[in-house]
Amino acid sequence: MVIRKPLNLAKFKVPKGRVIVLAERCKECGLCIEYCPKQILEYSEDYNEKGFHYPVVKAGMENECIFCLFCQEICPDFAIFSEKEE
Amino acid sequence: MGQKRHPMGVLIREDRMPHIFCPGCGIGATISNIAEALLESSLDPDKVSVVSGIGCSGRAAGYFKLDGFHTTHGRPIAFATGLKLTNPDLTVIVFSGDGDLTTIGGNHLIHAARRNMDMIVICINNFNYGMTGGQMGGTTPTGTWTTTSVYGNYEMPFNLPLLLTACGANYVARWTSAHSHYIKKSFLEALEKEGFCFIEVISACPINWGRRNKLRTGKDMVKFFLDHTEIKENPDPAEALIQMDTPILCGVFANKDKPGYLRAMRERLSQRVGIDVFRGDGKVELPETEEKLQKTVERPKKVEEVKIKLAGIGGQGIALLGLIMGRAACIFDGNQAVYSQEYGAEARGGASASSVIISSGKIDFPYIKNPDVMVVMAQGAFRKYRKEVQPNSILFIDKDLVKPYDLPEGVQVYAVPATRLAEQVGRKVVANIVMLGFISSLTDYFSLEAVKSALKMSVPKGTEEFNLKAFEAGYTYGEKLKRGEE
Amino acid sequence: MRIGVFICHCGKNIAGVVDVKELVERASKLKDVVYATDYVYLCSEPGQKEIQEKIEELELTHVVIAACSPKMHATTFARAVKGVGLNPYLLEIANIREHCSWVHHDKPEIATEKAFRLIKAAVAKVRLAEPLEPIKVPLTRKVLVIGGGIAGIRTALDIANGGFEVYLVERTPSLGGHMAQLSETFPTLDCSACILTPLMVEAAHHKNIHVITYAEVKNIKGIIGNFKVTIEKKPRYVIPEKCTGCGDCMDVCPVIVPNEFDQGLGARKAIYVPFPQAVPLVYTLDLENCLNTQKLVVCEQCYKACGPRAINYLMEPQEIEIEVGAVVIATGFDLLPIENLKEYGGGKYPDVVTGLEFERLLSASGPTGGVVRRPSDGKIPKRVVFIQCAGSRDPEHGCPYCSKICCMYTAKQALLYKHVVPDGEAYVFFIDVRAAGKRYEEFVQRVMGEERIVYLRGKVSKVFQREDKLVVWGADTISGMAVEIEADMVVLAPAVVPSKGTADLAKLLKVSVDEFGFLSEVHPKLRPVESVSPGVYLAGAAQAPKDISETAAQASAAASKVLSLLSQKEATLEPIVAHVDKELCIGCGLCWKACPFKAITMVREEKREGKKRRRYAKVEEAVCQGCGVCMAICEKKAINVAGFTYDQLSAQVKALLEDE
Question: Which residues in B lie closer than 8 A to residue C316 (C-beta atoms)?
């Protein structure tokens, strides 16, 4: 098929989330960054108190979270979750 | 950041965060998933309890905001069984590791599965004894390195789905710690079921196992799991063995609806004993029995302490004889009685002895050193206990079977052909009851009504009349002896 | 043995070239021939009567008819001889028309000699003929219809109403096919979905129809009356019994992809129904585009949103096996891919669209709600150029045939365009306007006249972009002038081709296809719905391009063939099948390997006195198609096709080559 751009994209709404990180709990395992389906997370530059780099949302991708909650599911440390944006 | 509360905060001890688990450990993710599933199930948290053993996984009980036990190594299932039986309304979850549940605790595991005990077991399988430094256990894959298998593990690991399915568990599933969706789904399914529900969660142990087997980080281990996982709708437990070069087969291996332990127990008890209600405090309501277990005499019969030793061959009913005497004295006459037995391993033919101490006052010590009365119904028993016959004591014997000799001074011997009389009544097995009747007529340690009531209570249902006949035979003989007619 | 030879003039067709009198004379001299004659038209009533009377009168035991091809009148003559009690397999037909008089019409002497040799060969063959009885096989009274468009639905309904069970298998998640994509149908301008959906719903609810969607036929074994079919149901990841079609899952799905039903001009989510009136109304999860994989569930939002918990990420393809007595292929058509039409800018410029894409723009339930918009910028085009025969009637594109439907649908689309854009201009480039159906011509006249749509007779040579307009260079052959039109949008009518996968399905069913991939019928005029494979019927555009009215007619025709087959007690098969002489067979197995229909098995014989147990070939008569490959490969001449034995064929060849 010719690459056609759908003309009715405005009709389709997708869920949106806002990522929240509890940095002090993070132990830098990296699973959330690896498995985010939209790849919107990366390691922070600075450290938390224990010396671990915690996840932050990549610049400009704040609106890309689709609220799948997989970061919350796979984090072993209760350090990251997402809140639904209405 | 930091002000918001994690959605699982309601069920997790946030004051204990960060927890002790290593970066990338699968236990934390599983705890999170179970908490989420519990929230979704809307169970009352006061009615949910977590029991853990020893190990990293075993610390889970401490991180849930639920009542629970943190028990000794290998024993969470035993504790959980006790918890469930006394509190049947609780949802009991055992959350522990492979070392704790299957290696050291393997015996509890298979029996709980076999009897389909009503509990949910989450077994975190990270292939080793993690907390203690990474030793090999019952689930370590062949050929892998642990601190106690430095040349590579020689052994085959357990195939846990096969093991549990074969034992008869109602629900057996295996997932990896990355499969959050399926862990939650399985857990919710298990909550709806009775019987033994076992969920194995293959988890990363990057520091103590993975690092030594070329999977250095949690990410590496999760990637390894995902690359090697095969999820099937109806997997065959026989293919579920985990080795490093074969796929990790995941799925729900068994989902049956056999009656759980509590239901099976209730059904049988309600048929036989009429008990069909278990109260939550562990007490059982007994139905009204025909004979009210009350005192049958108004005033207790006063008795000086008397120590009675009984001996004979296994099968003569020596133990029962002592028991009836004790019951007569304490249940029906209102006195104190202490009773103990000793016997060999044989069911029939070995030595058998019992002791009864009866007193209106306190009895200080249950063991008889100097019996006041001996009842001996076999020659072999006489030979064995002859030295214990005290001077001036009373000796009751079976006239035909026991020929006493070398007795000390002053022993009064009363003999009754108990076996022969029993045969006359109908069956040799009531020889002990004949002896009971005989003793009752010649002594006053217990009242006649008491001993008859105790007799009726202690013999199999339906044989009361027969036993009373035997009792009468011995009693009559004793009366005759008193009158000098025998 | 008393052989009778009947030589037909076929009017002037044979007699005009061949000397029939000479043939009669020479034929009567052949060994065992007791009677030879000629007649003007043997196939006529009196001609057949002549044959019958002579058989009875002269007590003929075998008959040779020298006439046209057996394809024409084999059945006629067979019925004739059967009518007087002669086994029809003791009749041999020599083709002295197609094989002789017609091809050698300019060499009469040679033609006559050849005709004689053909008669001699026929006599030699029939001398060795054995009487044969037709093979009867039991009939499973169930039918498989492959394809859930209007053809498949119509066929299924007709057969089901006749009282037989039907399995209707459709590859996409919903019934409907291309007709469901249309806005309105010509010439009545009925709303397509409005007339189609009642039939879809009727099929779904009919007690005799099992609708199996999102499934494909994987394998078919067996023959007429007894087909064993393996159908693979693709996993939907939605449990159909639980899904209520509420759409809560679709609302929360984060993945947006192009919707195939809208030809990519509209979107859908990864979990979707192709269109709102889909039958069955069950959502389907497209795992290819979903964020989850077979191994890992990352996003479970549809699962959580679904009240009845109908979503199961673990579904596997399911194979079901059914047994049917007849199969109808109704797999429909596709359009030539627009990328092939490079000269018209197809695949290059977004505003060059196909008729089907334009149909979706016109449709009220389409991606633009019935407002015609340019795909490039969404503006409403004020000037649209329609190009007919884009690929059809064009050997350069591999489609020299006429696609039949384009003239009518182009006219319809031009009319509908004018209705929604009253101030728009529409131009149609045509070679011919083919409006052969009922009220079609009047419709086109209306389009040309009332609607003031400009029809230009000529081909377009090039379409290219100039700023935001498309420039169309064509010819107007009636005025003789070259034409340049600056259009906002160009609609192509691409050639109609058989739908993808038709060729593989045909191979599976042993149905032949023509050079364009359309399924071959037995006879285009007289038997358009039967395929060369007994028990397999054709319906709809899979056989040749056609519009909806013809499709419905053909669908009912196929249904009637199926009903007449299944109303019988058993199916009757021709006894032209292979037989094995066990004494000659050495059990080498070459025939077993060679048989294209897997009709041969190797069996071990029972123990015989003093002889070693060995194996020999066994033919399944009901499966054998009499192709003769086994005969060709057998070194021991142990296997022969009845009616075409080695000896018979040998005798024919000898007779043809005698005196050479």
Answer: 232-233
Domain with CATH 3.40.920.10 in chain B: 306-483
Q: Which CATH class is domain B7-258?
A: alpha beta
- Please judge whether B231 and C314 are an interchain contact, meaning their C-beta atoms are less than 8 angstroms apart: yes
**Cβ–Cβ contact A86 with C under 8 A:** no
Any C CB within 8 A of B84 CB: no
Cβ distance C313 to B181 less than 8 Å, yes or no, reads yes
- B231 and C315 within 8 Å at the Cβ level: the answer is no
Strand, helix or coil at B42? coil
Residues of A in contact with C266 (CB under 8 A): 6-8
The residue-averaged pLDDT of C295-322 equals: 94
pLDDT at B267 over 90: no
CA C406, C412, C414, C420 torsion: positive or negative? Answer: negative
Residue C543's alpha-carbon distances to C153, C392, C395, in angstroms, are 16, 16, 20
Domain segments of chain A as ranges: 14-85
Query: Which residue of C263, C301, C346 is in closest CB contact with A68?
Result: C301
Q: Select the residue of A7, A12, A37 nearest C375 (Cβ to Cβ).
A: A7
Residue length of chain A: 86
The CB density around residue B284, as the number of other CB atoms within 10 Å, is 10
The model's confidence at residue B298, banded by pLDDT at 50, 70 and 90, is: low
Give per-residue pLDDT as tens, A7-22: 999 889 999 999 999 9
Cα distance between residue C472 and residue B413, in whole Å: 137
pLDDT at residue number B333 = 85
CATH: 3.90.850.10, 3.50.50.60, 1.25.40.10, 3.30.70.20. Which one for A14-85? 3.30.70.20
The answer on pLDDT for B1 being more than 60 is no
Task: Write out pLDDT tens, residues C484-501.
Answer: 999 999 999 999 999 999
Q: How many angstroms separate the CA of residue A27 from the nearest CA in chain B?
A: 5
Residue B276 has pLDDT above 60, yes or no: no
pLDDT at C640 over 60: yes
| Cis-peptide into C138, omega within 30 deg | no
Q: Report pLDDT for B47.
A: 94
Q: Mean pLDDT in chain C?
A: 93
Percent share of chain B, pLDDT over 70: 92
pLDDT value of position C161 = 97
Q: What is the pLDDT, as a whole number, of residue A37?
A: 94
CA distance C236 to chain B (A): 14
C39 neighbors C9 (Cβ within 8 angstroms): yes
Average pLDDT of B64-92? 93
For chain B, where do the domains classified as CATH 3.40.50.970 start and end? Answer: 7-258
Instruction: Look at C614 and C351; give whichever has higher pLDDT.
Output: C351
φ/ψ of B24, rounded to 5, equals 85, 0
Residue of B181, B182, B192, B225 best to disrupt the C interface, most CBs of C under 10 A: B181
**What CATH number was assigned to the domain covering residues B306-483?**
3.40.920.10
Q: What is the set of domains in chain C, with CATH numbers?
A: 3-127 (3.40.50), 142-230+319-332+499-570 (3.50.50.60), 248-305 (no CATH), 335-496 (3.50.50.60), 578-641 (3.30.70.3270)
Decide if C367 and A7 are in contact by the 8 Å CB cutoff.
yes
pLDDT by residue (tens digit) across C175-233? Answer: 999 999 999 999 999 999 999 999 999 999 999 999 999 999 999 988 889 999 999 99
Tell me the CA distances in angstroms from B179 to B29, C268, C293, C363, C524, one per residue in order: 10, 27, 11, 43, 59
User: Which residues between 8 and 37 in chain A have a beta carbon less than 8 angstroms from any beta carbon of chain C?
Assistant: 8-9, 11-15, 35, 37
* Cis before C258 (ω within 30): no
Q: Which two tokens stand for residue C38?
A: 């000629």
| C254 to A66: CB separation less than 8 angstroms, yes or no | yes
CA-nearest residue of chain C to A72?
Answer: C298
- Within 10 angstroms of residue B250's Cβ, the number of other Cβ atoms is 25
